[in-house]
Amino acid sequence: MSNITIKEIAKALGLSVSSISKALNDSYEISDETKKRVVEYAKLNNYRPNRLAKSLKGGQSNTIGIVVCSINNIFVSQILDGIQKASYETDYDIVIMQSNEDVNREKESIEALLKKGVDGILLAPVSENSNTEYLADVNENICPIVLFDRFNLSLKTTKIGVNESKGIMQALQHLIRIDRKKILFITGDQFGEENSRINSYKKALKTLDIPFNPKFMLSCNLGNNDLIDQQISESIKNLMKSSIKPNAIFGATDVITIRTLGILAQMKIKVPDEIAVIGFSNFDMPNSLNPSLSTIRQPTQEIGFLALKKLINLLATQQHKRRALHETILLDTSIELRKSTNL
Amino acid sequence: MSNITIKEIAKALGLSVSSISKALNDSYEISDETKKRVVEYAKLNNYRPNRLAKSLKGGQSNTIGIVVCSINNIFVSQILDGIQKASYETDYDIVIMQSNEDVNREKESIEALLKKGVDGILLAPVSENSNTEYLADVNENICPIVLFDRFNLSLKTTKIGVNESKGIMQALQHLIRIDRKKILFITGDQFGEENSRINSYKKALKTLDIPFNPKFMLSCNLGNNDLIDQQISESIKNLMKSSIKPNAIFGATDVITIRTLGILAQMKIKVPDEIAVIGFSNFDMPNSLNPSLSTIRQPTQEIGFLALKKLINLLATQQHKRRALHETILLDTSIELRKSTNL
DNA sequence: TTGTATGCGTTATCAC
DNA sequence: GTGATAACGCATACAA
């Protein structure tokens, strides 16, 4: 309701508005004495500069918008944490939006951010080609966008992610080492049949001379957890009855990999004896899982941290020079071996 | 960089700024024809109303600020999800800040929000009496604050949380039922020795005629996971060597309870045979844990949802009438039994 | 060293 | 049915 303004300070102190403004901004034009008087009065009365007004005037809001699929996701929330950490070192603050894996909502989220006047956007796209022209337009004409996690390949901008091929290779090589080549690969279906993780997987198989069997790949709908469970358990049940039983499972995401453990436990399938399990996961309590989970870990904090830093960099650069700064950074994953692949 | 304004539309269409504004706001003063012309032009040119300006003019930002300890926390992120869901049904959007369990940062976060001109604040306080006078001042004079999860008891406002006593009672009664009365209670130390969860626990013990043994209570520093592990495992190790071995563990938070499972697994202590485990937890994949975890589940989504709704309600009410709306809502927890307490 | 005037994008009041 | 103008809070170019 209240919140004192510069104008009121001016009236109270018998000075002009502009003098107050200058005093508060420590301008050389104002005498030390006046400054002191103003600053003291301001502090005493809890003066809070109105950022809306400042932004409106200055043409920049010092706010970064972020769009992720869902806050409520281990992987995402770790990245957000990294972004927040990076933001502490800057003057920028953060507004988070959720796309809920929905292309339209992704666009709505960005629109909301633009109306708020964000200076730049950090986006983990819903899919590899969602809103392509729209994003390009925004990135060119409104404010810079930096992509992280998933890539919208055609968008010309800075991208931060992980080296999937390498991560997948790490996992597969380990499975080969423990002689588990009949691998069921479980992934999400958001990205169509030809997403980069699937492609990397196939390529890795080829490199390692493991034939790709379509029956050993399951794409499930990540939008609904019950559905995930259902799809996975059904698939496993069928495969275990078939002549070519899998002896390993490789999960493409956190949720998939961890849920798979639960399903196997309920089906009383022994891990790793009957089926070894490994997958991308950033759950920070892997030892509490049944059994402790071998994972391909992604440097989430670093992804978030870097993404913000790079965006800030772009913002500090004149628009026409930004293109030169565009880069794609693929961070290395690390493999952590635990009981789920330990014979 | 660009982003067309009302002024530019006016110039392009040979109309006045005010007419454009009215047309865009569907005012009855403007002819349908003109409206159509304006709206079409606006859409065509991706006109985005500048919310900063609107807020500055209107004196309200339609933004709600949220302060939580950490986004990167299962419990918190579920609540945030609930808040976001609730916000979809309103015109408000959300800005999230992290206090990182730090009283000063909590205050800084709120200051940042106030500078941004938020209309109201949703706060999960760092502790039961952090920033009391400050919060009271803000709540009285600047914008309403609604508390959730943890309570700052002295602040007169709406509070949304869970019925801890009842939840703890559920857990203890179950432990009694399976004849596990030698219970190690593990909690956080943020709130001092006399926080409400500890008090509720002691009271429940008394009601159930279980003597309270100070040796069977561990308060650990939730700020650092390695430290948590160290404190818990040391404590368990010592107790298992002593004459009065515990046969159950009750964890006060998500992190504590799940980490305890991991520690027990590594110590090769059998759950539930040697030690049963139950605790507050909202991890949504309890079946993947070792063993599947019995939990006291808190209705996180609902907490968030309600908190936002109640705040919106306050905002829709004249300030001097708000006091009448203040209420404290304690939602019921539910107990979910799984193997970790199943003999 | 201080004050005046102007504008950021929008809406509301009042006049035409 | 439309337009001119002031105001929201702040910063800045310019005047004094």
Automatic annotation (TrEMBL), chains A, B:
Q: Which Pfam families match?
A: LacI, Peripla_BP_3
Domain (HTH lacI-type): residue spans on this chain: 4-58
Assigned keywords, A-Z: DNA-binding, Transcription, Transcription regulation
Domain of life, per the record?
A: Bacteria
> Could you identify this protein by its name?
LacI family transcriptional regulator
Q: Which residues form the HTH cro/C1-type domain?
A: 3-34
Drop me one GO molecular function for this one: transcription cis-regulatory region binding
Task: Establish whether keyword Transcription regulation is in the entry.
Answer: yes
Q: Per the database entry, which stretches of residues form a coiled coil?
A: none
